[in-house]
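4.2 Preliminary Data

To establish feasibility before requesting continued support, the project team ran the inverse folding procedure on a target of 99 residues. The structure was first converted into the token representation described in Section 3, and no sequence information of any kind was made available to the design step. The complete token record follows.
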């Protein structure tokens, strides 16, 4: 598969994730959309790393995977705690972080 196809696919996946973050109100869906955007960036990094003879893109992917793992642990803990206290994960009804 040529490089532009990977870049277009990465842009499409990132766009779908951005739309999911902006449109959806369910915290879990927003969380999955963020993961989709991170994977789109990973795809772009790997495609560029393979096209250019460099390991920098793959190192960036490794860093992104670590950040995504930490995000999952912390984010799911916050969502579970919000669900236990409010019995909902709707972002419009959760006003815990508002001052």
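Position-by-position output of the design step:
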């Amino acid at each position: 598969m040529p490089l532009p196809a990977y870049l277009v696919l990465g842009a499409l996946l990132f766009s779908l994730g951005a739309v999911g973050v902006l449109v959806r109100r369910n915290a879990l869906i927003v969380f999955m959309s963020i993961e989709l955007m991170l994977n789109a960036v990973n795809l772009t990094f790997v495609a560029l790393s393979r096209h250019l003879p460099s390991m920098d893109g793959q190192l960036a992917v490794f860093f992104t995977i670590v950040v995504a793992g930490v995000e999952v642990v912390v984010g799911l803990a916050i969502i579970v705690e919000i669900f236990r206290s409010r019995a909902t994960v709707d972002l419009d009804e959760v006003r815990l972080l508002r001052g």
